[in-house]
Specification:
With 158 residues, the protein is an alpha+beta fold. The protein has one domain: Alpha-Beta Plaits, CATH 3.30.70. The chain contains 4 helices and 8 strands, in the order E-H-E-E-E-H-E-E-E-H-H-E. The structure holds 7,8-dihydro-7,7-dimethyl-6-hydroxypterin (ROI). 7,8-dihydro-7,7-dimethyl-6-hydroxypterin binds next to strand 4.
Protein backbone atom coordinates (compact mmCIF):
# COMPACT_ATOMS: atom_id res chain seq x y z
CA UNK A 1 0.00 0.00 0.00
CA UNK A 2 1.24 3.45 -0.81
CA UNK A 3 -0.21 6.85 0.04
CA UNK A 4 -1.21 8.66 -3.14
CA UNK A 5 -2.51 12.18 -3.58
CA UNK A 6 -4.84 13.00 -6.47
CA UNK A 7 -5.68 16.48 -7.70
CA UNK A 8 -9.25 16.95 -8.90
CA UNK A 9 -10.45 19.81 -11.09
CA UNK A 10 -13.54 20.74 -13.07
CA UNK A 11 -14.85 23.84 -14.76
CA UNK A 12 -17.85 22.52 -16.70
CA UNK A 13 -21.24 20.94 -15.99
CA UNK A 14 -21.66 21.61 -12.23
CA UNK A 15 -18.02 21.31 -11.12
CA UNK A 16 -18.69 20.49 -7.45
CA UNK A 17 -21.01 17.65 -8.52
CA UNK A 18 -18.30 16.37 -10.86
CA UNK A 19 -15.82 16.30 -7.98
CA UNK A 20 -18.24 14.54 -5.62
CA UNK A 21 -19.01 11.95 -8.29
CA UNK A 22 -15.30 11.37 -8.97
CA UNK A 23 -14.56 10.92 -5.25
CA UNK A 24 -17.29 8.30 -5.07
CA UNK A 25 -15.83 6.53 -8.12
CA UNK A 26 -12.30 6.60 -6.65
CA UNK A 27 -13.63 5.14 -3.39
CA UNK A 28 -14.74 2.10 -5.38
CA UNK A 29 -11.49 1.41 -7.24
CA UNK A 30 -10.04 -2.07 -6.69
CA UNK A 31 -7.16 -2.47 -4.20
CA UNK A 32 -7.75 1.12 -3.15
CA UNK A 33 -9.12 3.01 -0.18
CA UNK A 34 -10.12 6.67 -0.15
CA UNK A 35 -8.59 7.94 3.08
CA UNK A 36 -9.20 11.66 2.90
CA UNK A 37 -10.74 14.52 0.96
CA UNK A 38 -9.86 18.20 1.18
CA UNK A 39 -12.30 21.06 1.08
CA UNK A 40 -13.33 22.29 -2.36
CA UNK A 41 -11.74 25.51 -3.64
CA UNK A 42 -12.76 27.82 -6.45
CA UNK A 43 -10.33 29.91 -8.49
CA UNK A 44 -9.95 31.58 -11.85
CA UNK A 45 -8.50 29.50 -14.64
CA UNK A 46 -4.79 29.92 -15.23
CA UNK A 47 -5.78 30.47 -18.86
CA UNK A 48 -8.04 33.41 -19.62
CA UNK A 49 -11.45 32.97 -21.17
CA UNK A 50 -12.42 29.79 -19.32
CA UNK A 51 -14.99 29.34 -16.56
CA UNK A 52 -13.69 29.26 -12.98
CA UNK A 53 -12.43 25.93 -11.69
CA UNK A 54 -13.39 23.96 -8.63
CA UNK A 55 -10.45 21.95 -7.28
CA UNK A 56 -9.79 19.52 -4.44
CA UNK A 57 -7.26 16.89 -3.42
CA UNK A 58 -7.94 13.31 -2.36
CA UNK A 59 -5.67 10.91 -0.45
CA UNK A 60 -5.76 7.25 -1.48
CA UNK A 61 -4.08 4.14 -0.17
CA UNK A 62 -3.65 1.77 -3.06
CA UNK A 63 -1.64 -1.21 -4.20
CA UNK A 64 -2.36 -0.48 -7.87
CA UNK A 65 0.74 0.29 -9.89
CA UNK A 66 0.96 3.89 -11.10
CA UNK A 67 -0.01 3.19 -14.71
CA UNK A 68 -2.90 0.97 -13.58
CA UNK A 69 -4.12 3.80 -11.40
CA UNK A 70 -3.66 6.28 -14.27
CA UNK A 71 -5.78 4.04 -16.53
CA UNK A 72 -8.47 3.83 -13.86
CA UNK A 73 -8.50 7.60 -13.35
CA UNK A 74 -8.73 8.24 -17.08
CA UNK A 75 -11.67 5.83 -17.24
CA UNK A 76 -13.40 7.91 -14.54
CA UNK A 77 -12.66 11.11 -16.49
CA UNK A 78 -14.10 9.55 -19.63
CA UNK A 79 -17.18 8.23 -17.78
CA UNK A 80 -17.87 11.78 -16.66
CA UNK A 81 -17.91 13.08 -20.19
CA UNK A 82 -14.35 14.32 -20.54
CA UNK A 83 -13.70 15.32 -24.15
CA UNK A 84 -10.08 15.79 -25.11
CA UNK A 85 -10.51 18.54 -27.66
CA UNK A 86 -7.57 20.77 -26.79
CA UNK A 87 -4.69 20.26 -24.37
CA UNK A 88 -5.51 22.99 -21.88
CA UNK A 89 -9.22 23.25 -22.66
CA UNK A 90 -12.11 23.44 -20.22
CA UNK A 91 -13.03 20.04 -18.81
CA UNK A 92 -15.77 18.28 -16.88
CA UNK A 93 -13.15 16.42 -14.87
CA UNK A 94 -9.39 16.35 -14.52
CA UNK A 95 -7.73 13.80 -12.22
CA UNK A 96 -3.98 14.21 -11.74
CA UNK A 97 -1.67 11.91 -9.81
CA UNK A 98 0.24 14.46 -7.74
CA UNK A 99 2.32 12.21 -5.48
CA UNK A 100 2.69 8.43 -5.36
CA UNK A 101 4.30 7.33 -2.11
CA UNK A 102 7.90 8.37 -2.41
CA UNK A 103 8.22 7.38 -6.04
CA UNK A 104 9.79 9.50 -8.75
CA UNK A 105 8.12 8.58 -12.02
CA UNK A 106 9.27 9.90 -15.38
CA UNK A 107 7.41 8.11 -18.12
CA UNK A 108 5.82 9.48 -21.28
CA UNK A 109 2.31 9.13 -19.81
CA UNK A 110 3.07 10.04 -16.25
CA UNK A 111 5.42 12.34 -14.38
CA UNK A 112 5.30 12.28 -10.58
CA UNK A 113 5.54 14.55 -8.67
CA UNK A 114 3.25 16.47 -11.00
CA UNK A 115 5.46 18.97 -12.82
CA UNK A 116 3.46 22.05 -11.86
CA UNK A 117 2.60 21.13 -8.30
CA UNK A 118 4.76 23.95 -6.90
CA UNK A 119 3.04 26.64 -9.01
CA UNK A 120 -0.53 25.88 -8.13
CA UNK A 121 -2.13 27.20 -4.98
CA UNK A 122 -5.26 25.23 -5.88
CA UNK A 123 -3.18 22.04 -5.50
CA UNK A 124 -0.84 22.94 -2.61
CA UNK A 125 -3.41 24.28 -0.13
CA UNK A 126 -5.84 21.37 -0.39
CA UNK A 127 -2.87 18.98 -0.32
CA UNK A 128 -1.68 20.61 2.89
CA UNK A 129 -5.04 19.82 4.52
CA UNK A 130 -4.36 16.09 4.09
CA UNK A 131 -0.60 15.65 4.12
CA UNK A 132 1.63 15.67 7.19
CA UNK A 133 3.17 19.06 7.92
CA UNK A 134 6.68 17.74 7.25
CA UNK A 135 5.84 16.04 3.93
CA UNK A 136 8.89 15.68 1.71
CA UNK A 137 8.24 15.11 -2.01
CA UNK A 138 10.13 12.30 -3.75
CA UNK A 139 12.35 14.92 -5.40
CA UNK A 140 13.40 16.24 -1.98
CA UNK A 141 11.31 19.40 -1.86
CA UNK A 142 9.40 20.09 1.34
CA UNK A 143 5.68 20.81 1.05
CA UNK A 144 6.00 23.62 3.58
CA UNK A 145 8.65 25.36 1.43
CA UNK A 146 6.44 25.13 -1.66
CA UNK A 147 3.55 26.60 0.33
CA UNK A 148 5.71 29.45 1.60
CA UNK A 149 6.55 30.36 -2.02
CA UNK A 150 2.96 30.07 -3.29
CA UNK A 151 0.65 32.67 -1.76
CA UNK A 152 -2.96 31.84 -1.02
CA UNK A 153 -4.19 34.30 -3.61
CA UNK A 154 -7.38 34.06 -5.63
CA UNK A 155 -8.49 30.89 -3.90
CA UNK A 156 -11.96 30.73 -2.44
CA UNK A 157 -12.51 27.89 0.01
CA UNK A 158 -16.07 26.63 -0.46
N1 LIG B 1 -6.94 26.72 -13.35
C1 LIG B 1 -7.46 26.38 -12.16
N2 LIG B 1 -7.79 27.36 -11.32
N3 LIG B 1 -7.67 25.09 -11.80
C2 LIG B 1 -7.35 24.07 -12.65
O1 LIG B 1 -7.54 22.88 -12.30
C3 LIG B 1 -6.80 24.38 -13.90
N4 LIG B 1 -6.45 23.42 -14.81
C4 LIG B 1 -5.93 23.73 -16.01
C5 LIG B 1 -5.66 25.13 -16.43
C6 LIG B 1 -6.37 25.44 -17.74
C7 LIG B 1 -4.16 25.26 -16.64
N5 LIG B 1 -6.08 26.09 -15.42
C8 LIG B 1 -6.60 25.74 -14.23
O2 LIG B 1 -5.62 22.74 -16.85
Amino acid sequence: MERIYIGLGSNLAAPAEQLRHALEAMAHLPQTRLVGTSAFYQSDSLLPGQPRYTNAVAALDSSLEPLQLLDALQAIENDQGRERLERWGPRTLDLDILLYGDRLIDEPRLKVPHYQVHLRAFVLYPLAELAPADLRLADGRMLKDLLADCPFVGLERL
